[in-house]
Amino acid sequence: MSFEYPQDLRYLDSHEYVRVDGEIATIGITSFAIDQLGDIVFLELSDISEVITKGDSFGSIESVKAVEDLKSPITGTVVERNEALINNPEQVAEDPYGEGWFLKVRINDPDEANEDTLTADEYSGQVEGM
Description:
Elements lengths: L9 E2 L4 E6 L2 E6 L1 H7 L2 E6 L5 E2 L4 E7 L3 E5 L4 E6 L1 H5 L15 E5 L12 H8 L3
Antiparallel strand pairs: 1-2, 2-3, 3-9, 4-6, 5-8, 6-7, 8-9
């Protein structure tokens, strides 16, 4: 099966992605992660104004197969969360890199998104062997 990994994103080996646009970062999970999880039934996300820290959990995603912690690829303050997904978590599978985002975060250090993250090609190479 072939998955899409947009070139403008950075990826964690735990399958989260980050898209940086100025001082705002958008965080979500990859199509590969969604495929591995199966049907998603519940999503818990950090609240607006909450500070999240790179490497720490900002919520969890639950499927019929498993519950997984969501790890933050950056440090910053949550400015928006995708309420539509909280109410209908299965929708993340329809457009993970567009309407399926989880959080928008005002980042402390824009360069942090490139530290300890993978390019699309690096991430693709890593998950293709799984």
